[in-house]
Amino acid sequence: MDADAQENALVSYSLVERRVGERSLSSFVSVHAESGKVFALQPLDHEELELLQFQVSARDAGVPSLGSNVTLQVLCWTRNDNAPRCCPMELLELAGQ
């Protein structure tokens, strides 16, 4: 809620929709309309998407409506998500182990 009164104090938030590759932005994230909190809708895979950049719009309910956009950047870090594999004994011997 901003410092204005009545309708001008009611702020709503939304994604500025766009495409991310072949998918819509809203398949990756959502924005709570009243609080502006951003939520990931699925795990973000570094190998598919290193950086997710998008805009969130905030608008009041006044007449005329006033608003602004902010750009958010989400960096997707990688982690070791591969199961460990055993190395054949021949390769270990060649490596001097």
Automatic annotation (TrEMBL):
It is a single-pass membrane protein. GO terms for molecular function: calcium ion binding. It comes from the Eukaryota. GO terms for cellular component: plasma membrane. Pfam families: Cadherin. It is found in: Membrane. GO terms for biological process: homophilic cell adhesion via plasma membrane adhesion molecules. Its main location: membrane. Keywords: Calcium, Glycoprotein, Membrane, Transmembrane, Transmembrane helix. The keyword Mitochondrion does not apply. Residues 2-86 form the Cadherin domain. The keyword Membrane applies. This is Cadherin domain-containing protein. It comes from Myodes glareolus (Bank vole).
